[in-house]
Amino acid sequence: MKVFYLSILMLCAQIGFAQKTFIFPKIKAQGSSVEQFTPPNWMIIDQVHGDLNNDGSEDLAVVFEYNKPIDETRVYGDNSSAIIKETQKPRILAIFFKDKSTGALSLSTQNNDFILRSEEGGKLGDPLQQIAIKDQQLYLRFQGGAEWRWELGYTFKFENKDWFLTSAINLYFNQNTGDMTERVYDFKTRELFTTVGNLHRRDIANRRTSEVLYFSELRTFRTFKKPWAWEIMPNVYL
Q: Is residue 3 over pLDDT 70?
């Protein structure tokens, strides 16, 4: 009987070890340089400076990447179920506000999910194309695919002490034929503009329509987990 219980305990320990999840570090709340915020075993792969809260100071947005691949279970399709297991390097998006008088940086938000990983772009490679700051807004751009390619763009703005998605773009096209569907979302005016046609002959071959966007409330980094995780319309994912 003792041997039986010992076997059960060893099996449970093995299962617990196999199911051990990766723990993301908590970014420091305050500091004076991006190096001070970089956790051990992480590296900076992109950073951008610009005013994000309309106070005239140069705020900071950074993408960190872990130094080795791990097994991650990623969300696709419904914003809640983690359904695809991938081996890749985790990434963190961190946004800091700069104090105009002291120059100190304070963490506004840390997001461990939204930035696509290097293996999530398909044959085109790393999907992270751009992180930018313009007009007090944060721009994130991704692309991927093979013959059929996709481009995703998201714009977030800091308002009422949170980061809200204000606009987005989703372009899906065939690299060889130019056949495409482009959707431009304006969440402030609740409008969706859809263009269907040809990427190479936009002036003569395309048809553009507009419609009302229906959603309950503006999404934030907390409620919009990552790209491809919001079914904004039936069979249309953003």
A: no
| Structural domain contains residue 10 | no
In a domain? residue 227: yes
Helix/strand/coil (H/E/C) assignment for every residue in 92-147: EEEEEEECCCCCCEEEEEEECCCCCCCCCCHHHCCCEEEEEEECCEEEEEEEEECC
- 2 assigned to some structural domain: no
**Cβ-contact 60, 106 below 8 angstroms:** no
pLDDT of 17 higher than 60: no
DSSP structure class, residue 81: -
Structural domain boundaries enclosing 132: 27-237
Q: Give the pLDDT band (50/70/90) at residue 82.
A: low
- Indicate the length of the chain as a whole number: 238
DSSP state of 38: P
20 in any annotated domain: no
Number of independent structural domains in the chain: 1
The Cα–Cα gap between 184 and 170 comes to 7
Mean pLDDT of 74-88: 76
- Reading the block at residue 37, the tokens are 């915020």
Cα 171 from chain centroid? Answer: 16
Classify 233 as helix, strand or coil: strand
Which of these, 28, 24, 35, lies nearest to 106 by C-alpha position? 28
> Regarding predicted confidence, which is higher, 173 or 5?
173
pLDDT of residue 6: 36
Read off the tokens for 138: 């944060």
pTM over 0.90: no
